Amino acid sequence: MQSALSSRAMLRAPLRASIVTLSARHVRPFSASSTSYLHLWDHLPGESVNEPSEGLAKLKGRMREERFRVKPLLNTAEHDRFDVVIVGGGIVGLATARELLNRYPKMTVAVLEKEREVAPHQTGHNSGIHAGMYYEPGSTMAHTCVRGSELMYKFCEENKLPAQRCGKMIVATSAEEHKQVEKLYKQGNANGVKGLEIFDAKQVSDMEPNIKAYSALYSPNTGIVDYSLVSDALASQILDSGRADIKLAFEATNFKKLADGSVEITGIEPSQNGPTLQVHAGNVITCGGFYADRLAGLTGGNAKKDQVVTFRGTYYQLKPEYRTMVRMNIYPVPSGGGIPVGVHITPTVNTRRGHALIIGPGACFTFAREGYKFWDFKAKDVIQSFTNPDFWAFALKNISLSFGELYKDLNKRAFLRAAQRYAPDLTIDMVEPSFTGVMSQVFREGGIAASDYIMERKVLGGTTLNVRNAPSPACTASLAIAEMIADIAAEDFQWSKAEKK
Q1: Looking at residue 390, what DSSP letter applies?
Q2: 67 pLDDT exceeds 80?
């Protein structure tokens, strides 16, 4: 290994020299650090861009106009009819609607979303454009991540949305962990990920002076984006088609196949008594995220199988004076168990948080499917999770992981210790609370965390396709997942190729 790393070091000597020169200009004293110096860069990714960009300004201007001056995009008709209705307005549902509208020039589509904005949950709390080195070569996950990454960068470029290829290092802190680095390097190359390199300790330090590691896998094409903006742009394109509607505050409560073969979807505004509204669909695709299993049950699918369990991820962020501590994504090697990717450091271009440098997340079990706070509690959700044998099988096989994540969620110092393994100068006084996100997870028989897509096909008399699981990196892969869903739907519903453009 050392000879291979040394040859790479020689090849990168000019780059290291330029980085060292640059970093030397930005060394500032930091008395609270365990060392005498902390390296701070000029700016985080995205800050050098003149913002708001054309696409961002246009999109946010339109969104403000529609939300605050124009009648809201709520339920405008009692008996709307569409060729396809997609239930779930997260990024996968929106991307699927856009894909169908692009493929079929005469098709009409509706998206039903129970919240009052699109993509408010898992999508809205995500920021990474992943490259694709975590997934088994030849798997659907590998294909959709690599292709989805290319499509996402292209989409952001076409719509002039802020997206930055800031890069990523997956760091090993020991020779034992380095085995994971080598494994990911081989997998990434097999999957077609471009530009991967293995760095030794000096190369890591030259690239990111505040990171201490035995080695790292460097991915130059990993990036960051604001998926809330991406979802808004997808929603705008859906509406601009003239053949689609997005119905917000529409919680689907019943699905019924009618004598003419169509599906009647009944819904209501969440937490309200009425009015009851209906939409008719030729075919239905559910992309329910947190509620994928319950939606499947409403359509006649097996609600007891592939049940959703949710986990809360807590984030902190660097205070403004320290937020340029690193310039790229810094991840630990995978910790195993199938749930947490580990506490990592990530720059953002998220409009809600500005250009923050965030640290997280954990992966703590929630007591409500929308459990953004530790004490959020919903009896139905807890009972369903605690009577799920596959969840218990996972928890019992990973007891230290389960209790460790719970402890980190409650203890800030324990949380930060996970990041201090590779960022030793990070101290508790440098960070402040940021946000929490919730992720859905499906467990298969024996407590195996599902790591691939799960599709329930031809339910409700052959009219409906249920997307039961679309795990991370669903945001990165969303446009490629949409292609896959459209292919499956065309086969199941026998949509004629002649209808395509």
Answers
A1: H
A2: no
